[in-house]
Amino acid sequence: MIFEDRVDAARRLAPKLAALKLANPLWLAIPRGALPLAVELAARLGGEVDVVLVRKLAAPGNPEFAVGALAEDGQCIVLPWARQAGADETWISAERTREAAKIRARRALLTPGRAACSAAGRDVVVIDDGMATGATMQLALMCVRAQTPARLICAAPVASPDALARVRALADSVVCLSAPADFSAVGHHYRDFAQVGDEDAASLLRRARGEHT
After folding, report:
1. Which in 36, 41, 51, 65 has the greatest CB count within 10 A?
2. 78-103 pLDDT, tens digit each
3. CA-based angle 70:73:75, to the nearest 5?
């Protein structure tokens, strides 16, 4: 399955998510790539948009390959293949420090002067533009679950079968349009997979929340 761009992916996800009959949903995007999807889905299905800040811990020499993930609250997961990929404890510790600084900077940029939206008692959809290892989504779901949402939904247009299996136990529902056995990279499933810049992400979030850009 090939999507034109992230907005097209959101439009194709919308009917599946609408079938869940979400009540005033909170759309939590994993920045930055998921924000165009969250904004489009909120426009179509209603609800509020915010971000859940988690960062991939990358393998040495391979910034696209996740060996773990770090959340804004300090929670961290390390994946089973981390050491095999060259990420020993020293590397993981340094990577956590680097990514924690990026999380703080991203929070200051995306939601200056405003606390994160509470997920307590709400129907919450955590969304990404795709899941390769599933590490960031896995940790995002764990963090949101701790806030006791009414329902917790994981949504992504495309995922590897392994990533999909990894997140199923962490959400009440998982909505994914494609999980090909030959999955190689999220970007291969989009014709336009241009990077969403920090300023673009901030503008999208402000617009979705009715704030001045």
Report:
1. 41
2. 999 999 999 999 999 999 999 999 99
3. 45
